[in-house]
Amino acid sequence: MRKKPLKEEHPNIATSLNNLANLYNNQGRYKEAGPLYLEALEISKKTLGNNHPNTAIILDNLATFYHDQRRYKEAEPLYLEALEISKKILGNNHPNTAIILDKLAAFYHNQERYKEAEPLYLEALEISKKILGNNHPNTIAIKEDYKLLMNYQNLKNHQKPK
User: Fold this and answer.
1) Residues contacting residue 32 through CB under 8 Å, at least 6 positions apart
2) How far apart are CA 153 and CA 52, in angstroms?
3) Who's near 109: CB < 8 A, 6+ residues apart?
4) 9-75 placed in CATH 1.25.40
5) How far is residue 108's CA from residue 26's CA, in Å, rounded to a whole number?
6) Alpha-helical regions (H) of 27-113
7) Is the confidence at residue 160, as pLDDT, over 90?
8) Where are the domains of the chain?
9) Closest by alpha carbon to 99, among 149, 53, 41, 68?
């Protein structure tokens, strides 16, 4: 248990703000969640730097927040920045990198940008299988996301006029 209070600009404050924003977001309290994500990101960048895994996590959560609200122009650069940080700091074969790849793929998938989504799903799946194994919940979730993409693509192909 912590006995001493933390400074306002401490990495743990950023983590707590991010966690509270996630809670509010999950409760549908979007007006409260958004500013908390932004404050968490600001503190994280200031205290840990732009190229830190915790900063990438907050970027990814903020991107997902915007994605869920269909604020695509705001979400995409955040996903890309989170992915870049994750690959640079954690490496191409890290579970967090796979998760961000899967989320970015889903982002493209939701916008019917299938050609952009497919290689990201495949990369995420390859990493997850290699690092976590075939039966890990993350691997199974990525497989399911990829199957959904394939089903959508097949459906679209059958609906095209001949």
Assistant:
1) 21, 24
2) 36
3) 117, 121, 145, 148, 149, 152
4) yes
5) 22
6) 30-47, 53-68, 72-89, 95-110
7) no
8) 9-75, 91-162
9) 53
- The pTM assigned to this predicted structure is 0.88
Q: What span, in angstroms and rounded, lies between the C-alpha atoms of 139 and 83? A: 18
Q: Which two tokens stand for residue 32?
A: 């409260």
Q: Measure Cα distances from 8 to 5, 15, 23, 40 in Å.
A: 9, 12, 20, 11
* Structure-block tokens of residue 119: 């290689």
pLDDT in tens, 91-122: 999 999 999 999 999 999 999 999 999 999 99
User: At 155, is the secondary structure helix, strand, or coil?
Assistant: helix
> Would you say 18 and 57 are in contact if contact means Cβ atoms under 8 Å apart?
yes
